[in-house]
Write a structure and sequence with these properties.
The protein is α+β, with helices and mostly antiparallel strands and about 160 residues long. It is about 25% helix and about 35% strand.
Length: about 160
């Protein structure tokens, strides 16, 4: 039982550090933990028939897939993937979505990615696409920043 006291001390120390971090976070954003707010991006979606510029698409780091409307998928000629996924939406509804392959261009980067499409879809840019592009959201600034050099699909460095 000699391990109980050191474990308790470690837990209290970790809890205190979390409290310090949260107080800094809430002070900076006047009591709201959502310091970043919504992030929007202008993206080009490309398929076999052409491309379209979509302005002010919300970047949703809680969404695995990018979601596109049926109109966009048809207009650009997205490549259908013979697969459907069940998605749980933010309002609690579950929908079956068709999956398409598209090329996304954003911030001078371009990558093939998968997009979901379902009836009544609201367009969002999901984390899978951000990963494909080598981008991430900086939680302090709310801006998209690179995770690797542009043009590289894989980046490795030794520590």
């Amino acid at each position: 039982m000699g391990w109980v006291k050191p474990l308790a001390v470690a837990c209290i120390s970790a809890f205190n550090e979390v409290q310090k971090f949260m107080s800094l976070k809430t002070d900076r954003c006047k009591g709201r933990l959502d310091a970043v707010g919504h992030i929007y991006a202008d993206v080009v979606v490309e398929g076999s028939r052409g491309e379209i510029l979509l302005r002010n698409v919300i970047v949703d780091v809680g969404a695995s897939y990018t979601v596109l409307s049926k109109e966009v998928v048809e207009k650009v000629g997205a490549w259908p993937i013979p697969y459907t996924v069940r998605l749980e939406l933010g309002d609690g509804r579950a929908v079956e979505a068709d999956i398409y392959a598209v090329i996304i261009r954003l911030k001078e980067r371009s990558a093939p990615t998968l997009a979901a499409c379902f009836e009544g879809a609201k367009m969002v840019l999901g984390v899978r696409t951000l990963e494909d592009l080598g981008l991430r959201v900086d939680p302090t600034s709310g801006k998209l920043e690179p995770t690797r050099p542009a043009g590289s699909a894989y980046f490795y460095y030794e520590i």
